[in-house]
User: Fold these one by one.
Assistant:
Number 1:
Amino acid sequence: MRTVSRNHTRIIARLQAELTTATRHNGPNDRAGTPVPVSEAWAAYDHRPRALLRELDARSGAHEIRITGKLRYELRPPAPAPDRREAPGWERRIDVVVDRDPDACTDVTVYLDGIALSDSSFAVHVIDPGASGPTHEWMESATDHADDVPEPVRQQLNALAACYHRHCGRESCTE
Ligand SMILES: [Zn+2]
């Protein structure tokens, strides 16, 4: 369990803003605890220099203020809103934002159900013959896929590249 040092005043100030519910627990058997105002927990923390502030659970953000061996508080952020993915009639939604900067590279951001995905969790495939045109070398690079590219994606990319590149007379050219 991570202990928050008392001199981390900025972290403590943030926790005081974020943790909006508190329960007071008397003794190790009092698991449910009694709801109390969060101000009671922070006042007890201020009045007891040896009280410990610890993170209980990184995922939920729950923290504990341990006053003594017998008295402790659990503090929690507000309960999250019900997940709309559990609502009837919900459908997965994907939004793709393409920033086609004419003077720089094209930037793509993908949102899954309104949440931006990290760059490493999706792949961007750009078919763009560019100023040099759909040369044979361009087509070869456009149809050279990483091993993990799914088959339907490969097929679409290959078909698009073939649309641009016309048979150039090379023996190896299948277009
Ligand atoms: Zn060719």
Number 2:
Amino acid sequence: MVMRRVAVVGAGLMGHGIAQCAAQAGYAVQLWGIGDAELAGARARIAESVAKLHAKGKIADPPAAVLARLQTTTEMADLAGADLYIETVVERIEVKHDIFRRLDDLAPPPALIASNTSTIPIGRLAAVVRHPERCLGIHFTSPVPLMPVAEIIRAPKTDPAVFETAVAFVRSLGKEVIRVEKDVAGFVFNRVNLPSTVEAIRLVEMGAAGVEDIDKAMRLGFGRPMGPFETADMVGLDTGYFALSALWRETGEEKFRPPELLRRKVEAGQLGRKAGRGWYVYDGDGARIGIAPLP
Ligand SMILES: NC(=O)c1ccc[n+]([C@@H]2O[C@H](COP(=O)([O-])OP(=O)(O)OC[C@H]3O[C@@H](n4cnc5c(N)ncnc54)[C@H](O)[C@@H]3O)[C@@H](O)[C@H]2O)c1
């Protein structure tokens, strides 16, 4: 299958990053969002990032050429005719089901329907469409334009040719592929990573160590570029909370139970960098200026 048009459904942190990478790779991209303000913000963030990457010599095309390949819309009907749909709305199954149903009506096979879900088994999302064989997971990590990898998840009914088309697509973005051959909740990235984040939050809850020391431990002790709290602030505490809740519901495993403290943080609006405060506090330019008080 020759892939030309990519539709990204959801214009948040991940959606705008995925749309940017696809536009940089030469695809005609449509980015769907729930409102004009969200889409304007997404376009502005993409323009800023593309300009930076171009200045550093990481993108050959002039920024204007990349941006010309990107269209934004709030009308789902405008997405008709794409070769690949990537759903990346909030991590709630009822919202994702609604999107999958709408895409099913809008885009007949052979168009692929992928989800960027962090945790929900793809087979559960594909259960609401008429042709589940064209569904699979393409799970990017944040920040998408900088991270060199995505995992591709095979659901029980995914057509092998669909899987390989997605592998080729991710490689065409200049990223490595992790092949996930079984549709387990949380896949590889989050299945391995989230339990350590949960444990880090529990250590703070117990008063065993502070967020800065735990982040330092994981950076200096394990060579990670960011500690769990720094990562959580970038990802969004609400997104992490939804992902953990979904994973805990799917598996019933204690290691994925969202800590109380995380729930309180989300309820207090301490959502991470996007809110100016999460585990840390940030100034208007995004520089870290302190540790947020625990709610
Ligand atoms: N943040 C990360 O690091 C990360 C990494 C990998 C995967 N993911 C997954 O990607 C998806 C999106 O996460 P994000 O980080 O971009 O979150 P985000 O909060 O930045 O964006 C969520 C998007 O969902 C939209 N949305 C919310 N309610 C909706 C509704 N009822 N109908 C339609 N759209 C709705 C919002 O407008 C927004 O565009 C989630 O499934 C998340 O688990 C996130």
